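> forwarded from #structure-qc
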């Protein structure tokens, strides 16, 4: 969920972040919150998560470029704290971005074991923001429930039917996380030390066209086998991708295959952490097609050098590009997790 801040000054912005810190602590620890204070009166929790518990809820907060400066207006006096890496992703070929699904001053990314809990978390944060921030856009997403996946270690499938996340950075690969995801201790500005940058893209999959390809054609587009997730040069999902292998004179993984063009080999070693979700927003009334796809979320040290660099290549050369439409885009700076007794972004707010 992305919010536009309406707080009039820095102290009101601090108040918003203090309120959200309190609510987030309660939501992630107990699942429900103590009676809410609204307009100075005490009222009950909105109630829809009663008895469900925290359900592995996590909430990640990020600050968008417009929080620091909007149309030349340094409304909170934060302009000189904006990291150079935090700028809107420049227009990329094929973008069909909608302003109402893009940008925002502050984002909250929530993950939970079920959608009811997640809705409750956002409902609560929205109420807590009253008078200080208004929602700009909200995107829900889903993955197959962990217990429903019987092949281990299970990689979830996207709505194209392919395993998605095989060659992703693993959270327990400290070396890769330090090199590609975490900003590190010595980075500047100081308030972003140990933080990371989030890039979100709402990518619609044009399923009506995709569904008309044969499985073999789909596999050429991705560069992997649909059922097993194995690269076209291997038999098992975990087999190495061999981009050099040729069969009958042609590349076994086509030159325009998604995994070739997105790979670190093609992108001078650049990688990012993908944490995407499938989405389904019902029927697009204009076309009668299902508006569904991938809510692509990635984490990296530098959105311009990582996400934007890879996406520029994909937008022009990737065989998958003609099956996709990028309708939303946003970038946020996520400061490190909040320590007890402090509030979200305190090092930035001073
Ligand atoms: C709807 C859009 C997309 C779909 C359906 C999709 C699907 C896939 C699939 C099926 C794989 C192979 C399995 C894996 O290794 O995870 C893959 C790999 C990958 N994708 Fe995407 N992808 C999409 C968009 C993107 C975007 C926007 C980026 C980055 C700008 C990206 C970056 C990557 C990377 C880095 C890999 C791993 C390549 C490798 O090293 O093997 N993907 N994607």
């Amino acid at each position: 969920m992305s919010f536009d801040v309406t707080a009039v000054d820095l102290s009101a912005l601090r108040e918003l972040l203090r309120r959200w810190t309190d609510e987030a602590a309660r939501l992630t620890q107990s699942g429900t919150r103590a009676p809410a204070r609204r307009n100075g009166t005490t009222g009950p929790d909105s109630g829809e998560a009663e008895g469900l518990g925290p359900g592995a809820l996590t909430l990640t907060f990020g600050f968008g470029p417009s929080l620091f400066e909007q149309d030349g207006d340094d409304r909170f006096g934060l302009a000189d704290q904006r990291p150079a890496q935090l700028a809107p992703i420049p227009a990329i070929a094929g973008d069909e971005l909608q302003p109402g699904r893009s940008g925002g001053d502050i984002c909250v990314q929530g993950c939970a074991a079920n959608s009811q809990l997640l809705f409750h978390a956002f409902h609560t944060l929205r109420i807590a923001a009253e008078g200080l921030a208004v929602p700009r856009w909200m995107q829900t997403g889903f993955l197959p429930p962990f217990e429903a996946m019987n092949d281990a270690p299970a990689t979830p499938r996207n709505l194209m039917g392919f395993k998605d996340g095989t060659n992703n950075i693993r959270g327990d690969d400290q070396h890769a996380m330090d090199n590609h995801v975490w900003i590190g201790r010595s980075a500047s500005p100081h308030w972003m030390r140990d933080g990371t940058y989030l890039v979100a893209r709402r990518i619609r999959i044009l399923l009506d066209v995709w569904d008309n390809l044969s499985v073999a054609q789909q596999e050429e587009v991705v560069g992997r086998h649909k059922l097993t997730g194995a690269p076209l040069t291997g038999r098992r999902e975990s087999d190495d991708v061999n981009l050099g292998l040729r069969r009958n004179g042609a590349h076994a993984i086509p030159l325009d295959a998604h995994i070739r063009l997105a790979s670190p080999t093609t992108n001078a070693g650049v990688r990012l952490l993908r944490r995407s979700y499938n989405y389904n927003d019902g029927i697009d009334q204009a076309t009668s097609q299902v508006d569904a796809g991938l809510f692509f979320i990635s984490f990296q040290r530098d959105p311009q050098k990582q996400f934007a660099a890879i996406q520029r290549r994909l937008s022009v050369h990737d065989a998958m590009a003609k099956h996709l439409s990028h309708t939303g885009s946003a970038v946020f700076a996520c400061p490190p997790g909040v320590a007890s007794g402090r509030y979200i972004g305190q090092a930035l707010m001073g």
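QC bot note: The chain has a mean pLDDT of 93. The first helix runs from residue 10 to 29.
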